[in-house]
Write a structure and sequence with these properties.
Length: about 350
């Protein structure tokens, strides 16, 4: 896990929730829930958290967080939209970490509206009167916005961004797509299509280019390539996946295997297959990235990314900055994991 290592307590004024997570070998989310006495934490996990916290001398201190954090003791969590499962899960995880450190959270949804975006990023001094720090969850930024945030009095951290002058956490989207495609190749598939995201202006960090790159790299390693007609770009949604798979079936020919750039697109693809009297994996292997909660229900093979842990980790890094940690910005890429379910299998070829 790139850059994720325990920090010596001589480097910081006190142990953090991340230190407890590392020592207990549990996720930041699980540690936060255990420390706050929330449900859905096993007895074993609760014991490991308590043992690690005791060894480190960890103690959540709202007074310390507020004193080091500055004037307000509050942070803003900014998301492109607050209604999708991805951002809802990320927000909840970040809020738990902030609450554990005694920080209040202010949720700001940009709602895909330019006027809301301009009001927030166009007057960061006004935002700094309300909060001491900003956590950006999957918010795509222009160069001017990056420069404005860096020059503002706000502490900043992000999830999903890269190449920014503050702490950030994410996954390697190239690697995730490579893992998904390698699974299909390992099953013996030789014909492929990709339901790639059509990046639009909704303000969400784009992943389509990296995931397409990982897909094509894996094929190239096996001396294969995808036909341009089988790279279909639609929005990353159930509706987009439905339209993309329908276009593939009706006009471009169904290959042996399809990689959908996100789980929701795969859900739409499954619907299109069903309406055409087809199914996965009988007629085509289908794989995606995310591990949406519905993926288990639908039996979707996917590459899981740790959504909650990314947000919790980024929130922890922001909390540390508010408590006085200095040093160069950190860029952490968390690992992904292939989860094989029922929508992929070896191809059945005619003799």
């Amino acid at each position: 896990m790139k850059g994720l290592r325990p920090c010596s307590l001589t480097d910081r004024s006190r142990a953090t929730i991340r230190d407890v997570a590392l020592l207990s070998s549990l996720s930041i989310c699980t540690v936060s829930r255990a420390l706050r006495g929330l449900p859905n934490v096993s007895e074993d996990a609760q014991r490991r958290v308590e043992d690690a916290a005791s060894k480190l001398g960890y103690r959540a201190s709202s007074a310390a967080a507020r004193l080091a954090g500055g004037r307000t003791g509050s942070v803003a969590i900014i998301v492109p939209r607050a209604t999708t499962w991805f951002f809802a899960q990320a927000v909840e995880a970040a809020e738990e970490v902030f609450a554990d450190s005694g920080l209040d959270s202010v949720l700001i949804s940009l709602r895909g509206r330019a006027d809301v975006r301009e009001r927030i990023f166009g007057d960061l001094d006004a935002l700094a009167q309300r909060v001491d720090g900003v956590l950006l969850l999957g918010v795509d930024l222009g160069d001017d916005e990056v420069q404005a945030l860096a020059a503002s009095p706000l502490e900043v951290a992000s999830m999903g961004l890269s190449g920014v002058p503050w702490d950030t956490v994410g996954i390697d989207d190239v690697q995730a797509a490579h893992a998904a495609t390698s699974h299909l190749l390992g099953l013996g598939h030789g014909e492929f299509a990709i339901l790639a995201a059509d990046e639009d202006d909704r303000g969400t960090v784009g992943t389509s280019g990296d995931r397409l790159a990982g897909f094509t790299q894996a094929l190239a390693e096996h001396h294969l390539e995808v036909h341009p007609d089988r790279i279909i770009k639609e929005p990353s949604s159930i509706e987009g996946g439905y339209r993309a798979m329908t276009e593939l079936i009706d006009n471009r020919g169904l290959p042996e295997a399809v990689f959908a750039a996100c789980d929701e697109a795969a859900f739409g693809a499954l619907k299109a297959l069903r309406e055409h009297g087809l199914s996965a994996p009988k007629d085509v292997s289908l794989i995606a990235i995310d591990d949406h909660p519905m993926s288990t229900v639908l039996g979707l093979t996917t590459v899981a990314q740790p959504v909650a842990d990314q947000a919790a980790f980024a929130a922890d890094l922001l909390t540390e900055r508010l408590q006085g940690r200095s040093g160069a910005p950190q860029d952490h890429r968390l690992p992904v994991a292939l989860i094989e379910r029922k929508t992929t299998r070896r191809p059945r070829r005619q003799p």
